[in-house]
Amino acid sequence: MSDSELAPLLARVADALERLAPAGADDARLESAEGFVWHADGARLEAVPRINRLDISLLKGIDRVRDILLDNTRRFARGLPANNALLWGARGMGKSSLIKAAHGVVAADAPGGLKLIEIHREEIGSLPVLLGRLRGSGARCLLFCDDLSFDSEDTTYKSLKATLEGGISGRPDNVLFYATSNRRHLMARDMIDNERSTAIHPGEAVEESVSLSDRFGLWLGFHACDQATFFAMVEGYAAHFGLAIERETLHAEAVEWSMTRGARSGRVAWQFVQDLAGRLGVALTAEGEPPA
After folding, report:
1. How do residues 91-110 score in pLDDT, each as one tens digit?
2. How many independent structural domains does the chain possess?
3. Cα–Cα distance for residue pair 43/130, rounded to 1 Å
4. What pTM was computed for the model?
5. Contact partners, residue 197, CB within 8 Å, separation at least 6
6. 169 and 233 both lie in a single domain
7. For residue 12, pLDDT beyond 80
8. Which one-letter DSSP state was computed for residue 183?
9. Burial class (CB in 10 A: 0-12, 13-18, 19+), 43
């Protein structure tokens, strides 16, 4: 093959390789959306055209933690000191919903000024790579990991500890880390007990296990709701989506629904409202998702 024939072939190969290469997470890339999902495979950020979230006014029974997280997020967005936050506690009480809703409120005050980047728990090991990509980008980035927890023989938490606060490079000033978990110390009780029983110095082993949660300056607890709060949740949803139903009937059906589920929570309230809307023939066209 002559040089004249080889040159176009090499050009086509180069173009194909460039198309296959993952997009870089530079300023232009981050400006393309307000939300992203991080994929460790290929070290790339996938833009999310629309973040699926609830209006913050629909999150009931969590007023105190809502105000604390909003204030922390606002300070971070303005370039002021802020803390990593761990939202822990009862299932379905709005932990991840609050993070996304708080981002929506703060981002609305300064469009494009705060990015929400979701990193899956399985890809926490790639967090240093992501931070390296975001460091110096100029964008304020809120990292979000839902259902963060660790089980036996999982040592990923050690690298996460160093990444959050203890590493030589430290966490970039333009990055904050929010996580949700059902466990206050992020680890199963049997995992902590096992380290205590097998260690030469049990106290030191426990310190090693639970010190990850110490990297979070904010611990925000979520607890199971009472019936009054549960009623406030379903009433808020019904009013927001325009569901025509008598208050007494709404309460009675909501109680029956919660009894069949054996629990009262924001998630159960949302599932009830979806069923109610379907029976009433009302489409839930506004943004919304089950609280988590």
Report:
1. 999 999 999 999 999 999 88
2. 2
3. 7
4. 0.80
5. none
6. no
7. no
8. S
9. middle
